[in-house]
Write a structure and sequence with these properties.
single chain, 127 residues, alpha/beta, 5 helices, 5 strands
């Protein structure tokens, strides 16, 4: 599976890369929503997207809304990993099309567990 991780923090991108590569994911990184959109236009075959919310240029919510307009990304799992934990912000993310939400700093086992849950949910919707 191929994953795109979007975060303006190089430390968070590295942590996501290490955790997900240990689970067999092939990783690509983006520093904000605009960078992610450029990468998606070049390689539109991501199976999972992980995004922060608070980023320069294009924030995570704007990115989610934009990517959900692409037919080949209408049902791709999008996990938000953010310091934002306000219920209103999480609801806004859900309405935009986020599949799940995890607070920073994340625990690797918690992230893996949520990703497995999202994968199972997607598999059951396809079946």
């Amino acid at each position: 599976m191929k994953c795109l991780a979007i975060d303006d923090s190089s430390t968070v991108r590295l942590a996501l890369k290490l955790v997900l590569e240990s689970q067999g994911y092939k990783m690509d990184m983006a520093v904000d929503g605009e960078d992610a959109m450029r990468k998606i236009r070049v390689s539109s075959d991501f199976d999972l997207i992980i995004t922060d919310i608070n980023m320069p240029n294009m924030d995570g919510l704007a990115f989610i809304k934009e990517i959900r307009t692409f037919s080949n990304y209408s049902s791709t799992p999008i996990l938000v990993v953010s310091t934002e934990t306000k219920p209103e912000k999480m609801e806004e993310g859900k309405k935009a099309g986020a599949s799940g939400w995890i607070a920073k700093p994340f625990k690797p086992n918690e992230l893996i567990s949520i990703l497995k849950s999202i994968k199972e949910k997607v598999s059951s919707q396809v079946a």
